[in-house]
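Usage example:
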Amino acid sequence: MDNSEFYEKEQKNENIPRKGKGRTLFVVLISVFCLVIFGGGISFFTGEDKAFSESENRVLAAMPSLSLYSLKEGTFMKDFETYLTDQFVFRDRIVELKTLFDRMTGKTKAGGVYIGKDGYLFSVPSSFDETGMESITAKISAFADSNKDSRITFMMSPNSSFVYADKLPDKLSLADQSYQIEDIENFTQSKSIDFINLSDVFLSKKDEVQLFYRTDHHWTTQAAKIAFDELMNRWKKPVKDVNFRFMAAADGFQGTLSSKSGVSSAADVIEICVPQNSAQTYVVDYGNGEKKAASLFDSSKLETKNKYEVFMGGNYGRVTVETTSSEKDTLLIIKDSYANCMLPMFTPFFSKIVVIDPRYSEERISAVTEENTFTHILFLYNLDTFLGDTSLEEKL
Amino acid sequence: MVFSSATFLFLFLPFTLVLYHLKLFRNKERETGKKNLVLLIMSLIFYAWGEPVYIILMLLSIVYNYNAAIDIDSYIGSPKKKKLVFICALIFNLSVLGFFKYYGFLTESINSIFSLSLPVREIPLPVGISFYTFQVLSYIIDVYRGDVKAQKSIIPFATYISMFPQLIAGPIVQYYDVEKQLTDREVTAEKFAAGIMFFIKGLGKKVIFANTVGAVCTEIFGMETASLSVLTSWIGIICYTLQIYFDFSGYSDMAIGLGKMLGFDFIQNFNFPYKATSITDFWRRWHISLSSWFRDYVYIPLGGNRRGTARNIFNLLVVWSLTGLWHGAAWNFIVWGIFYGVLLIAEKYIFARVLERVPVFIRYIMTMVTVMVGWVFFSAENLSSAVNYLKSMFGLYGNGFADSTAEYLLSENFFSLAVMILCATGVFAALPRIKNFRFNIALMSAGYIVIFIICIIYLISETYNPFLYFRF
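Running the assembly step on the lines above writes:
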């Protein structure tokens, strides 16, 4: 600390331009710099605000409202910055450039998405938190024990990063989701729960059928049908008696993973699968009587970016389906969005189906089981949502 | 407000530059007065944008210290009164800093030592308080010692304390260094261009480099420490080592660059610290303005090395515990500071002879490993997690040298890590240059413009944008 050189306060820097030399070149640098910052600034005032970003599939921030409170709390300043970056000129182009840049430097991860082979994108799986799993499975067990009259099944799907692990970027290896699902099964103490781990059946069929969308985090309708067959087999339902028909609903599907990463790779086809019983009709109540329809599809969503919303028109807290099926059985499904494309397949086998998505629902699930009795209760989740979401635990 | 934000780059900066450089007066003094006023007002807006409430604290500090310094100056004839005002000012400034920065830590420590349960209150730390308090202290002490005259006019003084380029994360500018510039400075095209280059260099360090490696080390630090392979934990700490350097020195470069655009010359804060071949050398290159401050206002007043070995060792330990504590109110920062104090003492009194005979390359590796071990303490949430991370770095968890995670991380980040290491260790800067000055300037201008555009691309497309040094 005592060396004399340390006392020299001014250190020379050879990059500092010296007076008089190359002056015109400085002027070029200064002009371009000012052009960029002033141009950027002026574009905020002249450009028109966009409400929605197609490529990011989300509502863009609008000019935050100014109030004494928002100034004091600093929320105005934060929201203002989000507003500026959201409305920045050429925003979409800029994000694309960045992705290009990352791929050139060997990055295989963009926006929390792994960029895999053959056009596959994968979301980064949620981590497995043992204590969290113990507490949620305890709640599920308690729920099962208080609904002993119903047949309760918990079906869980792994995610595409596990099933299509061979398509992950080189050298990337992720946790074994099959084991994780087994762990959850072992944590679940209640004897009245029947557990279906879809890992093995998916692994055996992954090369015959495309089980997951390449650019979206959902499973395909084909995968949902395989899962449905497994379930019906457990429940001893005569699934063979019904004809199911697959129909392509849309092509050019670039899903959530594509939006998140900014990578538009191979587009996917969305199929729907419907039972072919001509006599079958049903009424669907989305929410609590707010929106009624005779369909579990919303074809207007096919025109939008998020085409997966063609199934049930998106996510609702509670959906009730009354069918004309002669079956006496009734079904409660507690689910995430994986169930949306599977729902139409159930209609020939149940006279009433109530679907609860705890993420969007405000009511406790016990309230539903108290007001109705169900012969069957199905928990249907993909592992990633199950690990990452806390709303199921809150609602049980 | 942070420099790497759209609000700053595209609204605040252009607006400030126009107001600042818009010539209103022929008279040079009045023009500088206008410039100071513009700078003061814009700096207050800048600060209030990030700390809408605590700006009152800063204004209070400005007014109090402005008056205190004038009082100190006016009691030339009565040393007792002068000393009294001076000590009051020291106590005021240190207790404000102490209350906002260390209150929670202090009550927690007292509770755990004496097993009490005093109520612990988490007080949010006002941004930049560590930096501006140290600037104020340098001023007050210099006035007391008679090294500088008290600033009679409040606007230049308030401008010095609140000046937005270095307000939030340094460099800690001593009043002595800018006294003249506050009332007499000019901006030439050369200086402005140099300012742009410094600013873009800093912005690039922050936005392109620090944020990129930051994401990697956040990922690794988020994994279960006990399950990390040796290589993974080293990649993690190397990323952190790069991140903290690029983040902090980038901020300093931006501050220096903005200062130049406004006509100020601040001292250089970093001089390739990762080129150091000893710990002593490292601290001559890392956060120079902080080490200078502690040297000038703590180490030398305590007697430095002029009162014998024992006293010198004591002085060094005091300085380094305080340096650690300055960085954060937690035990791991104190351990980090003392770690360096002990190493510096050892280098000076025990290994000085031995080290001379060790080849430079080996010394370099030893220094860097030591610095990285230091960063483990610095980055950790608490002491025990630091110790756990060190265990995994030295293979004490028995997870083997490398696993697939390490291989993936390495192949994923190899290119960017290589470029950043070459930049941080000064290899790029040391490449031979073409002697033609015009050619150099043309090349540099083009290069900086490209970097600036890339920064904007990164900024707009990334939402991950926290400034590390705000914690301190």
